[in-house]
Specification:
- By secondary structure, this protein is an all-alpha fold.
- It has one helix and no strands.
- The relative contact order is 0.03.
């Protein structure tokens, strides 16, 4: 064998070894990336489920708040109506007292 053939064979063997090493390194990196992708997907799914839970809790709270606002509005209207009735009763009472006092004056 000539020195050129020996040199080319050594270069070829080194190149093959480097290619195998690069393939092993790449395979390891791909495996690590798959693990990281799986972790990120799990974290994303967990965050999405927590978001959905929070949104449903917010919906329940909003609905409860709407119910309370509706009850408050009804009570405000009822209070206003009752105040009007009380004012009308007081007016009637004062008119009745006035009539009674007028009758007493007429009787004397």
């Amino acid at each position: 064998m000539s020195p050129f053939e020996i040199l080319s064979t050594v270069i070829m063997l080194v190149t093959i070894a480097l290619v195998v090493a690069a393939k092993i390194f790449t395979a390891q990196k791909i495996t690590m990336m798959k693990v990281q992708i799986a972790q990120v997907a799990h974290i994303r799914q967990d965050a999405a489920s927590r978001l959905k839970s929070a949104q449903s809790q917010k919906g329940v709270a909003d609905q409860g708040q709407r119910v309370l606002v509706d009850k408050r509005n009804k009570l405000v209207k009822k209070i206003a109506k009752l105040k009007e009735e009380i004012a009308a009763m007081e007016k009637e009472e004062s008119a009745r007292k006035q009539r009674t006092s007028m009758r007493k004056v007429d009787l004397e």
